[in-house]
UniProtKB/TrEMBL annotation:
Residues 97-227 form the ZipA C-terminal FtsZ-binding domain. InterPro entries: Cell_div_ZipA, ZipA_FtsZ-bd_C, ZipA_FtsZ-bd_C_sf. One of its GO terms (biological process) is division septum assembly. Belongs to the ZipA family. It comes from the Bacteria. This is Cell division protein ZipA. Residues 32-91 are annotated as: Disordered. The chain crosses the membrane at residues 6-26. Keywords: Cell cycle, Cell division, Cell inner membrane, Cell membrane, Membrane, Transmembrane, Transmembrane helix. It is a single-pass type I membrane protein. Pfam families: ZipA_C. Residues 35-51 have a biased composition (Basic and acidic residues). HAMAP family: ZipA (MF_00509).
Length: 245
């Protein structure tokens, strides 16, 4: 096996581990549809922002909200299987990739994101439902180029069952920018970031980075620097001029 093949296998394994990590938040406790869980603590006048910890969604004081933890359940890798006749809209032209950038929109402590609300918010932000039964942002006028980025649920199997979308609840949704993308890495990021932020506004959720901490300006700047470097490394080499003798 060549070094290139080994490198691709290593990158693929890292990507799958990242996807698997989002499922480690566990399966939430069943609640009546459409109802929000009220906090048992008195209103202190200050909103605690959650971060996604290893064992669930944890608020600022380190307390894990009930129903958001795990019970040692091992996650399966990847998204669920789709029907044979499922849409190819948003399917990547090639499965070769070497970098994944991810963000999350998490529900606030003690709450869940409801499936029908996610669908409405996705439509408002220009996402389309397609390949793998998840949502994608496509290049306007050129859907055949594949997804700029995609959005899935963190709950197994990750896809959205439209036939039962009203019964769906999830503690968070995940956004994935897989590189190379149909745009430059930085341009793709500039499409994904405002979409994620708008989804958080529409769903009254919180934007988290790939470390499951609240996304701040410093982290955003760091990601932009990384993607600029990626674009420099992957830009087409300049044409070599033939010297005249």
């Amino acid at each position: 096996m060549s070094d290139t093949a080994l490198l691709r296998i290593g990158i693929l394994a890292a990507g799958l581990l990242l996807i698997a990590a989002i499922f480690l938040f566990g399966r939430p406790k069943k609640k009546p549809q459409g109802r929000r869980v009220e906090s048992a603590e008195p209103n202190s006048g200050e909103r605690r922002e959650p971060v996604l910890g290893e064992d669930g969604v944890t608020v600022a004081d380190g307390r894990v909200e009930p129903g958001m933890g795990t019970e040692g359940e091992q996650a399966e890798l990847g998204l669920g299987e789709t029907d044979p006749g499922a849409s190819d809209l948003g399917k990547r032209a090639t499965q070769d990739f070497d970098k994944i950038v991810s963000l999350f929109v998490a529900a606030r402590a003690g709450e869940q994101l409801r499936g029908e609300d996610i669908v409405v918010a996705a439509e408002k932000t220009g996402l389309v439902f397609g390949h793998m039964n998840v949502f994608h942002r496509l290049v306007e006028g050129h859907p055949e180029r594949g997804p700029i980025f995609s959005m899935a649920s963190i709950m197994k199997p990750g896809s959205f069952d439209m036939a039962n979308i009203r019964a769906m609840e999830t503690p968070a949704i995940a956004f994935f920018l897989t590189l190379p993308a149909p745009l430059t890495a930085l341009d793709a990021w500039e499409k994904m970031l405002p979409t994620v932020q708008r989804m958080a506004e529409l769903l009254d959720g919180v934007v988290l980075d790939d470390s499951r901490n609240a996304l701040g300006r410093q982290r955003i700047a760091h990601i932009r620097d990384e993607l600029r470097a990626y674009d420099r490394q992957h830009q087409a080499p300049p044409l070599t001029k033939t010297p005249r003798w």
